[in-house]
Specification:
This protein has eleven helices and twelve strands. It is of the alpha/beta class and 360 residues long. It folds into two domains: 49 residues, DNA polymerase, domain 1 (Orthogonal Bundle); 291 residues, Alpha-Beta Barrel (TIM Barrel). The radius of gyration is 21 Å and the shape is elongated. The chain binds S-adenosyl-L-homocysteine and iron/sulfur cluster. S-adenosyl-L-homocysteine binds next to strand 8 and strand 10.
Length: 360
């Protein structure tokens, strides 16, 4: 069993089942999350017997970093290989004094949004808690290697679940992962700094709300009418916009917090003035903000990116409805690290090449 698959508050209890003293859980979590050490033999304040043989054969196996590419704007894409082969990606985004880590929750994605590169992979499998936390550990190691440890403050201060996959399709893993990310013995990040983005799985949004984690909610709306939404996001056939807005109203928010609606702008598809007005009317009565994401093209995609002018006009029309609309700057497009560009289509080929197989 991988200890990282359990929420950190349960570590002490679990270790005591294997004959360890309960405070061993705290000692080990300190090594893992504060010092980024996952090798028991290096945990020097543990008794030699615990260091040599993991209690109950517990492990801390993590996905293995295969590549890390840095974009001209400083965005970094980290590719990690899971123990059974699939490759997932995380993105580190330095911006305005913040360091945001974008995490994957699945290898591939089964939701099938037509504008998303990950969709073409289909769903390979859900990630486990240790594979989500492993992305954080490896991203931190990368930053620390570059001297971040010497600066003040935690290197990664925001986390967004906007990488590969639909986080709410893997809710049983997402919830314990968030508990470790927010627990003082784990990563210790405030839940206000964690955002879960979903394609709008209504019953799961309810469950996330009931888990009372205090995390921010973002919903990819991407169309102002059900008719258009069903075309570009097949999940719209299951959950109409009205139900999505209802569940967002029920989502527990603190004072002044709002649900974010993401809207990928596709040229000539959902970016007209009339569509901006429809979206404005839909969201005006609602405590929300809109995040406009100009489409990030990828090879073989049928959509185009609207002009800056069109994007600005769309935002202006929403402002007329007193809706705060921000435009998401595309980060790391040159290394295909921007929203919706994460994918590894040719996994077997990549594997073979990395292993130096001349037959491919
Ligand atoms: N599955 C979740 C989170 C991952 S996708 C979701 O769909 O919300 C993160 C964001 O990227 C979503 O808002 C999605 O609409 C957006 N996105 C997907 N493909 C994109 C593309 N090609 N260009 C710009 N944004 C894209
Ligand atoms: Fe999956 Fe999100 Fe991409 Fe849709 S946009 S296919 S839900 S990752």
């Amino acid at each position: 069993m991988n200890l990282l698959d359990l929420p950190v508050p349960l570590w002490g209890e679990t270790l005591s089942q294997y004959g360890e003293v309960p405070y061993r859980g705290r000692q080990i979590s300190h090594w893992v999350f504060k010092k980024l050490v996952t090798d028991l033999s290096q945990m020097t304040n543990l008794p030699l017997s615990s260091r040599a043989l993991p209690p109950g054969n517990l492990s801390f196996d993590l996905p293995e970093v295969v590549t890390s590419e840095t974009s001209v704007d400083g965005t970094r894409k980290i590719a990690l290989r899971l123990h059974d082969g699939p490759i997932i990606e995380s993105v580190l985004i330095p911006r305005k004094g913040r360091m945001t880590l974008c995490l994957s929750t699945q290898a591939g994605c089964g939701i099938g949004c037509r504008f998303c590169r990950t969709a073409a992979m289909g769903l390979i499998r859900n990630l486990g808690v240790s594979e989500i936390l492993g992305q954080w550990i490896e991203a931190m190691r990368l930053l620390v290697r570059e001297g971040w440890g010497e600066r003040e403050g935690p290197p990664i201060d925001h986390i967004v679940f906007m990488g590969m996959g639909e986080p709410l399709a893997n809710l049983d893993v997402l919830i314990p992962a968030i508990r470790t990310l927010t627990h003082p013995d784990g990563v210790g990040l405030s839940p206000r700094r964690i955002t879960v983005s979903t394609s709008g799985l209504v019953p799961k949004i309810d469950l996330l709300g009931r888990a009372n984690l205090g995390v921010q909610l973002a919903v990819s709306l991407c169309a102002p009418t059900d008719e258009l939404r069903r075309e570009i996001m097949p999940v719209g056939r299951v959950y109409p916009i009205g139900e999505i807005l209802d569940v967002c109203r029920r989502y527990p928010l603190r004072n002044r917090e709002r649900v974010t609606f993401e809207y990928v702008l596709l040229s000539g598809v959902n970016d007209s003035r009339e569509q901006a007005r429809l979206l404005g009317r839909l969201l005006a009565p609602f405590r929300s903000k809109v995040n406009l994401i100009p489409f990030n093209p990828f090879p073989g995609s049928p959509f185009g990116r609207p002009s800056d002018q069109t994007v600005a006009l769309f935002a202006e029309i929403l402002a007329g409805f007193h809706i705060t609309a921000t435009v998401r700057k595309s980060m790391g497009p040159d290394v295909l690290a921007a929203c919706g560009q994460l994918a590894r289509e040719h996994q077997t080929m990549v594997h073979a090449l990395e292993k130096g197989d001349p037959s491919t």
